[in-house]
Amino acid sequence: VYAVFDKPVHMYRGTTMAGIIRDEARHDPSRGFVGGYEMETLSLGLPFMAAFLNPGGWGRSFTTALDHYDRMAGLWIVGEDMPREENRITLHKDEKDEHGMPIADVHFDDHANDTAMRDHAYKQGQALYAAVGATRTFPTPPYPSTHNLGTNRMSEKAADGVVNKHGQTHDIKNLFVSDGSQFTTGGAENPTLTIVSLAIRQADYIATQMSAKSI
Predict the structure, then answer these.
(1) Radius of gyration, CA atoms only, the chain
(2) Residue 50: per-residue pLDDT
(3) pTM of the model
(4) Does one domain contain both 170 and 124?
């Protein structure tokens, strides 16, 4: 969500550091969806802001909006994407990279819950900026990619996922996954600290297993 004010607010100045609003980061189905989301106010430079305002945007309305960038403020919405069995990453059947290897083919469709959450977040973001004096507010399309999560999901049983609670693959004892692909869902917050916590636990487990010569 972006907003235009009648005076300069200089969003682009300073260090890019999010101001996080957690009021909606809760489970409350009465809002029309499950899970929750956060709103993150940001300090973005002009190139970054142009990309997020409208990826690939062009034309008079787009350039007019950028003319007011010194009077603009924006926020991101970080919400939980529901897992869908149809969402997947496979090897492309035809296209290959410069090494002759098949490229990744990413298939992602929104869950109905994702759309309902996003619509609610747009309204709340616009209401927030209107409350602090914005003269114009407008939602922006979701960015093509943010945090890459999933595809090697954690599970107790091999039939339900790829790795166990230590990030150890079910089928190969000495193969571990340490990134966000272990996640079954994104949650309402940024995932970095959770990834770090899982990696620390995994390192302790690997050290113990190596000492016991189990791996």
Answers:
(1) 21
(2) 67
(3) 0.83
(4) no
